[in-house]
Design goal:
The structure is a single chain. Helix content is 47%, strand content 10%. The chain has 313 residues and is of the alpha/beta class. The protein folds into two domains: 181 residues, P-loop containing nucleotide triphosphate hydrolases (Rossmann fold), CATH 3.40.50; 75 residues, Crystal structure of tRNA isopentenylpyrophosphate transferase (bh2366) domain (Helix Hairpins, Orthogonal Bundle). It has a six-stranded parallel β-sheet with strand order 3-2-4-1-5-6, sandwiched between helices. Bound molecules: adenosine-5'-triphosphate (ATP). Belongs to the IPP transferase family. InterPro entries: Dimethylallyltransferase, P-loop_NTPase. It comes from Tagetes erecta (African marigold).
Length: 313
């Protein structure tokens, strides 16, 4: 017997625009993947940031923005462009700005890559009926009015979820905080506090970036690096760093649980497991070459296949 015919796709309206969305927890390698794809395989790509802290100007190291050098001339949008002293950049603002950018990218035959860890921004952009007054992710517990996640989308989306198992990701994130401090995060925060910037930025926006609340008490007492002879400054500094590490790991865990909610609601996410590549990074005898090989095999190559298939559909 012949299988029943698939119901035909409704022909009303235009074809939905195709976009690629690279999701994942903080630190999982979304930026690296987007640059690999844009420089080696899909050279017409333009990246649209979907990290709600990285949209703001300033604190580039603290919010871990990709550097100019790491961008390899790939166009980046909504990265470091919003004034942090003004109103909070809301998901509804993102929906408007990012959809205008997608139209522009598509009009020049580009491929929009949405890249970032803030699922509320991704949700606001791709859902058909977005309600700006309803935060579907951050709900009270217990929730008196449980809300469901919508799976009706206004774009034709290829969702790539770069996932790293949390025990391995946490080890990497702990190491990454130390690297961020080595590359100038603390000096950036010293300037931020001592020029009075911290009083000017919106406390519900950039003022919440991990690193600011954690160092606030320290900067109320001290003006720079802890001095060797001052044990209490050293103790407070270490405490702030411990807290940053802890909050970064918590952020990653929360982001993964939001992604799982989207998947459970029927979003077709293609999960790629980058755990082995990260395991290589956190081992003491780490060699960049080993990581790069595993990364290509487990993450880049499958992504290229998935995206090619999606573009051919
Ligand atoms: P959303 O819930 O809107 O999808 P999210 O998962 O990126 O966003 P939240 O759960 O709102 O983030 O954030 C938890 C904490 O992490 C907040 O204090 C937030 O400001 C901070 N945070 C998020 N992204 C960054 C970043 N790139 N740099 C520093 N702090 C960040």
């Amino acid at each position: 017997m012949k299988p029943p015919l698939k119901p035909s796709i409704p022909t009303t309206g235009r074809r939905k625009r195709k976009i690629v969305v690279i999701m994942g927890a903080t630190g999982a390698g979304k930026s690296r993947l987007s640059i690999d794809l844009a420089t080696r395989f899909f050279k017409n790509s333009e990246i649209i940031n979907s990290d709600k802290m990285q949209v703001y100007t300033g604190l580039d190291i603290t919010t871990n923005k990709i550097t100019m050098q790491e961008r390899f001339n790939v166009p980046h949008h909504l990265l470091g462009v919003i004034d942090p002293t003004k109103a909070v950049f809301a998901p509804s603002d993102y929906r408007k700005l990012a959809s205008d950018i997608i139209s522009e990218v598509v009009s020049r035959n580009g491929l929009p890559l949405i890249v970032g860890g803030s699922n509320s921004l991704i949700y606001s952009l791709v859902t058909k009926r977005f309600d700006p007054d309803l935060d579907v992710f951050n709900r009270p517990d217990p929730d008196p009015n449980p809300v469901s996640v919508s799976s009706e989308l206004c774009y034709d989306c290829c969702f790539i979820w770069v996932d790293v198992r949390l025990p391995v990701l946490n080890r990497y994130l702990t190491k990454r905080v130390d690297e961020m401090l080595d590359s100038g995060m603390f000096e950036e925060l010293v300037e931020f506090f001592w020029t009075g910037e911290h009083k000017k930025v919106n406390r519900s926006g950039l003022g919440q970036a991990i690193g600011i609340p954690e160092f606030e008490a320290y900067f109320e007492k001290f003006s720079g690096f802890p001095r060797l002879e001052d044990a209490s400054s050293k103790e407070m500094y270490n405490e702030a760093v411990r807290w940053i590490k802890e909050n970064t790991c918590q952020l990653a865990k929360k982001q993964v649980s939001k992604i799982v909610r989207l998947r459970d609601a029927g979003w077709e996410l293609k999960r790629l497991d980058a755990t082995e590549a990260f395991r290589a990074v956190v081992t003491p005898e780490y060699r960049e070459g080993t990581m790069a090989e595993i990364w290509d095999k487990h993450v880049v190559e499958p992504s290229v296949k998935i995206i090619n298939q999606f573009l051919d559909e």
